[in-house]
């Protein structure tokens, strides 16, 4: 049975490993530093799925985003389930936890963005009740300065 709980500092290495599966390689130290900042913010919800104590098989990050054009909305920033455990309902449990977190924080809508090439993710989110709202291009530019 899967247990969903708040992400803890001790989970950093497992979260980093799973982030690599998601296509975002990172280290436990990097995740640990980011987690220290994000876990202290009331705008972020960070959860893990564990099969047994310390056996982390998935994680989800949901946060509140607010803009001038679209009031506050809860957005899934990342979700991954260990490839060996996909198709067992763990992703659905994590999404349900993100939805509970959003509702508890007064946000009746949850958004998720996913790469256009991730057909499996698209099917998964549609099966969880998400509907396609728009397509877009995302542009990045590196700037000088300090960061994580």
Which descriptors apply to this entry?
single chain, 148 residues, alpha+beta, Aminopeptidase, five-stranded mixed sheet, 5 strands
The CATH topology: Aminopeptidase
Shape: globular
Number of domains: 1
User: Helix amount, in percent?
Assistant: 25-40%
Run of helices and strands: EHHEEEHEH
pLDDT averaged residue by residue: 94
**Beta content:** 15-25%
In DSSP terms (H or I, runs of 4 or more residues), the helix count works out at: 4
Largest sheet: 5 strands, mixed
Which class in CATH terms? Alpha Beta
SS elements, strand count: 5
User: Order of strands in the sheet with the most strands?
Assistant: 1-2-3-4-5
The CATH H-level superfamily is Gcn5-related N-acetyltransferase (GNAT)
Q: How would you characterize the overall build of this protein?
A:
- By secondary structure, this protein is α+β, with helices and mostly antiparallel strands.
- It has four helices and five strands, in the order βααβββαβα.
- It has helices spanning 12-22, 28-38, 90-104, 119-127, and strands at residues 3-6, 44-50, 56-65, 73-81, 110-112.
- The chain starts with a strand and ends in a 21-residue tail after the last helix.
- The relative contact order is 0.15.
- The model has no long low-confidence stretch (mean pLDDT 94).
């Amino acid at each position: 049975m899967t247990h969903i709980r708040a992400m803890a500092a001790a989970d950093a290495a497992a979260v980093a490993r799973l982030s690599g599966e998601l296509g975002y390689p990172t280290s436990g130290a990097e995740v640990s530093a980011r987690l220290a900042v994000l876990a202290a913010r009331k705008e972020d919800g960070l959860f893990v799925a564990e099969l047994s104590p310390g056996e982390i098989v998935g994680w989800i990050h949901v946060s509140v985003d607010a803009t001038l054009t679209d009031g506050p909305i809860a957005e899934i920033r990342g979700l991954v389930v260990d490839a060996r455990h996909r198709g067992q309902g763990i992703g659905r449990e994590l999404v349900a936890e993100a939805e509970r977190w959003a509702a508890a924080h007064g946000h009746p809508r949850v958004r998720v963005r996913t790469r256009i090439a991730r057909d499996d993710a698209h099917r998964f989110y549609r099966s969880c009740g998400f509907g396609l709202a728009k397509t877009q291009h995302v542009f990045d530019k590196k700037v000088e300065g300090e960061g994580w």
